[in-house]
Amino acid sequence: MKCQVKEGHLAQGATDVLVISGYEDENTLPKAHQALDDALGGQLRELRSNGEFSGKNQESALIHTRKTLPAKRILWLGLGKKKDVTLDRVRQAMGTAFKKVRQTGAETFSAPVFATDTVKAPASDIAQAMVEGAMLGGYRFTHYRSENEEPSKEIRTMTLLANRANQVSGMKTGVRRGEASAHATSFARDLCNHPANVMTPSRVAQEAQSIAEDFGITLTVLESKDQEKLGMGGMLGVARGSQEPPKFIVLEYAGGRKKDRPVVLVGKTITFDSGGISLKPSENMEQMKADMTGGAEVLGAVRAAAQLRLRVNVVGILPATENMPGGRATKPGDILRMLNGKTVEVQNTDAEGRLVLADGLAYAARFNPQCIVDVATLTGACIVALGQFAIGMLGNDDALKADLKKAGEQAGERVWEMPLWEEYFEQLKSDVADMRNIGGRGGGMITAGMFLSKFVDDCPWVHLDIASTDWSSSERPYISKGPTAIGTRLLVQWLINRSG
Prior knowledge:
Layout: E1 2-7, E2 15-22, H1 31-39, H2 43-49, E3 60-64, E4 71-78, H3 87-103, E5 108-112, H4 123-137, E6 157-162, H5 168-193, H6 201-215, E7 218-222, H7 224-230, H8 233-239, E8 247-254, E9 263-267, E10 269-273, H9 293-307, E11 313-323, E12 335-337, E13 343-345, H10 353-364, E14 371-376, H11 380-386, E15 391-395, H12 398-411, E16 415-417, E17 435-436, H13 444-453, E18 461-465, E19 471-472, E20 482-483, H14 488-499
Parallel strand pairs: 1-6, 2-4, 2-5, 5-6, 9-11, 9-14, 10-11, 13-17, 14-18, 15-16
Antiparallel strand pairs: 3-4, 7-8, 8-11, 12-13, 15-18, 19-20
Helix pairs in contact: 3-4, 4-5, 5-9, 5-14, 6-9, 8-10, 9-14, 10-13, 12-14
């Protein structure tokens, strides 16, 4: 779908569907809608007065204009009460709008920038949110369906209407950012929707190579022998039970000045997690194809940074492997020596993500980074603590945590901080090694974060646990059922903010 910006008035532009918004506590039609209502013979006022449209959040009404306006139809969307409208509510509204527009068979639609009178954000940010909502609301994964339902017409063009000429430039910037962010998220969803017999570590490396070639990014892939030479005991320990060779993938995007130290993103990339010898229950195990979501999101974020030519140096690290049972698999009680020399007693092979991330974080330190952010479907404890609407955040730097929290609010992918107090390390102490890889039932998300903290030294670092948000059992306005890739737009927005 092509997204564009034009200066124009609602009543003048030709389009298949004109999308407008209304509030629940709006007593009169805004001035911009009055010209539409006059052309329609008072239909908008009538819908309001008879209660067919009250402006409640996610409510909608479709009106056929019957050639009284250049637009063939008007889709009226409710945003709820003015005080409750946020950037993410605008994003949700556009996700809903896209689905309803597609149902009409329309090929084009237009919309003014929503909620400029209620959302405390520039028109560029609102335009970005609208594009993200529309593009992600239209996401579908049909790669493996041999008998599709009769395909509907695809929407070819979305046009955002600027009231004034001086809005156009900022809105175009917002559209570009929205497109890059949505493409990155859809890309990550696609990777996680592919089954594990297709999306192997080798295939992830191929996807990274394609991004590197398309955007001029430096790619390094460390094979098993390279990992052995470096002493990546965590990576190799997790990979032992699998027939698929592990790949340690490193992408370097140089968008900033040569002298600028990079930011490093590390993403857990377990392409299938059976639990290893500590085998998971069979129920919902098919969802473990998405245990690579962190790595997919890092790939998507690096891709978006390059697409937008952000003025920042970014390194993306993906420790990619399967976690499988087998004759050579790591066993409970085994001891692994990690890249930084620390030893870990493996008491549960299903706590494998922190083992590959440990080597990823230790490797990240070699770039002398400004900061490190890792993202991972790490703990079931995160789901218990936060449900499905917040990402768990732990870290050692208050400024970095604040920046990520701000980006999460902007992106509608919010974080919730958990404590990272040294007392929690008592639960990780081992009788035979420097530490063990689990800390018992209490504070599972926190002890996992505490484990990772031992591999970043003094570098500013934040860990994002996306186990609570990475999979949705139902479809929401712009969140797909299945892999959600929530966290991708947070990372992209954070990089945009750092780029200035």
